[in-house]
Amino acid sequence: MKQAYKILTIASIFFASCKPNLTTTKPVAGTADFSKYLAVGTNFTAGFADNSLYKSGQQNSYPAILSTQFGQAGGGNFVQPLMQTDVGYPSAKLVLGTVTDCTGSSLGPVNFSGSNAGDAASVASQGPFNNVAVPGIKCTDYLTVGFGNQNPYAARFYDNLATETPLTEAMRLGHTFFTCWLGPYDVLFYAIDGGIGNVPGTQAADISDTALFRSIYNTVVDSLTKNGAKGVLMNIASIADMPYFTTIPPNGLVLSAAQAAALNSQWASNGNMSFHADSNYYVVTDYASPNYTRQIYSDECILLTANDSIKCAGWGSAVPIPTKYVLTRAKIANITNYTAYYNNIIQQAAAKYNVPYVDISSFIATLQKGIAFNGVNFSSEYIAGSAFSLDGIHFTPKGYALIANEIIRNINNTYHSTIPYADVNSYDGIKFP
User: Fold this and answer.
1) Both 298 and 393 in a single domain?
2) 326 CB-side CA count, 13 A
3) Out of 104, 214, 215, 274, which residue is the most buried by the measure of CB atoms under 10 Å away?
4) Are residues 116 and 264 in the same domain?
5) Do residues 48 and 147 share a domain?
6) Same domain as 205, residue 93
């Protein structure tokens, strides 16, 4: 199934402790064999961050962090289809820099300046790879023949672009252990695009059909476990825990008395709109409302990508925020319901194939309140929280280290392993200029 590839894309009780014990016992594999570790997944598994894929992001992906920890208990080499540069592919990554707009100059996300020459070149000859994650891939793509010809990331490392499926590429390694985090983008594309897709549908902006998801997901897990390999299955996080969907508050329209009076006059024909001095709900487009306009409800979302136009183009006040930048109650219900459907399918597969189910969604949700690791605090707050990268969906290296540690906790509990936890504070967060 061809995708229109758009690039914008925590803790257990253990992490609540300020000083976790990183080296409690001698590392042992227990009943698992980490000698050939395979990572299956999408953007998160690839190390995607800051709205792009780049070399240091891949090197600090949660599978790369896991492989380092597995190495202390018999883990082998971990080969990834690394980019040649740290610029970002296919477009440059986001970095913090000086942003000049209608409000003056401030620190904010800007595109990195540099050449990514060579990043598109094939590295297939370096395979088979331990990390076969492909940014933009859906679970429902995993049996698509010739997928490497449809996705620029897969095209870089698939062994046979014309005949190979993502599953056949994954099975080339002959793995002994795996992590599988498939499914996030079966619903995230729809959410990131403001819910403009079909529910369900077969295009990139659509939510995937649950019956097709179930069939393909079970086929993947059946293949991953057929050779006796152990592993873990990870579920899908809620958009309610991602800064891309939560940074702009619905009632973030702050007005003076004069501004409120002007808007009350402008929107007088809309009987359901009212403004006052102080905080107000933003004005959004809704084709079912009078004049196709209303104020956003408190339980709806404004996408992070609307921020600049809210500041400088009058969006949300004199100009309604376009519908593709708003997740209404109906759209959020679609996202919430299908995320639950998919997670139920993943949990059932875990039980069927006797593989531990890692509730990564609950783990990520703890960032809303914040967690501490060795005295350093992390949260889901945009930029300041350190866990999420500048795209507001994917993680920083610190965030990916937190993810890796939650996976390790589940592995140790299930397979009687004693894999050491990674030192989260030794990894980078948001880099300031």
Assistant:
1) no
2) 26
3) 214
4) no
5) yes
6) yes
Is residue 419 one of the residues assigned to a domain? yes
Q: Do residues 284 and 295 touch, judged by C-beta distance below 8 A?
A: yes
Helix boundaries (H) for 175-274: 185-192, 210-226, 243-246, 257-266
Q: Evaluate if pTM is beyond 0.85.
A: yes
The 10s digit of each residue's pLDDT in 308-337 is 999 999 999 999 999 999 999 999 999 999
Per-residue pLDDT at 153 exceeds 60 = yes
Q: Count of domains in the chain? A: 2
Residue 241 lies in a domain: no
> Mind listing the pLDDT tens digit for each residue in 209-234?
999 999 999 999 999 999 899 999 99
* Residue that has been written with the tokens 């300031």 in this structure: 432
Residue 1 lies in a domain: no
pLDDT tens for each residue of 172-204 = 999 999 999 999 999 999 999 999 999 999 999
Give yes or no for a cis peptide into 128 (omega within 30° of 0).
Answer: yes
Contact 423, 22 (CB under 8 A): yes
SS3 107: strand
Element (H, E) at 155: helix 152-157
